[in-house]
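Data availability (excerpt). The following record was deposited with the supplementary files.
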Amino acid sequence: MTEHGFKDHFSTGSADYAAHRPTYPGALVEHLSSLTLRHEKALDCGCGTGQLSTLLAARYGEVVATDASAAQIAAASPHRRVRYKVAPAEASGLPASSVDLVTVAQAAHWFDLPRFYAEVRRVVRPGGVLSLISYGVLEIEGAAGAVVQHFYGAVLKPYWPPERRHVEEGYAGLPFPFAEMPAPALAMVASWTLADLIGYVETWSAVRVAERDRGRAPLIAFREALAESWGEPELRRDVRWRLSARNGRL
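Predicted structure:
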């Protein structure tokens, strides 16, 4: 636990996180912006290194992007309309009724949800929107996909934190006490080389926990199996993550 009382799985390797995490589709931001009556300010909580924050800036006059990890904020992508701030999601420090949209991308399972929801009710203008966004394990066709699935679900199974199940469920099991609105079927898609995929997998929190317990051997074995199934290292393969979003109006 950190000084803010949050479980910090990502401060170590923040630069790698910024370099290798996938990008959210523009269609997600288009959908979210269509839900809000105003587009003055968005709050992106648990923003990490700003993958979603910078995209929101295309539709909102100002984006306040908060994360409890100073290391993540230090590695965030700069943008003239994004104001990064080290702060827990449960205490943004923003004025009451000042925000049109609150987003949480791949981070809500770490929050103290009752306190976070109280903060959302405080900062969001009447009629504003909260969106909890998540994506599960990546999908690749063929033998490479089978190698990744085995590493994720079998080799790393003992090392994933228990909160990970909420991501796998698309946040369906989280309490969500707001008037919920349907979300379109969306996905993130990337065209990656072998090195791109390995760089992404090495950002997984379970990989770092496994290394502390078993050393580099599991990761080395995974890299060798993936390389054998991939073919030429510079060959690009389509990688896909299904997105889930729980959108609620306040």
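Summary of structural features: The mean pLDDT is 92.
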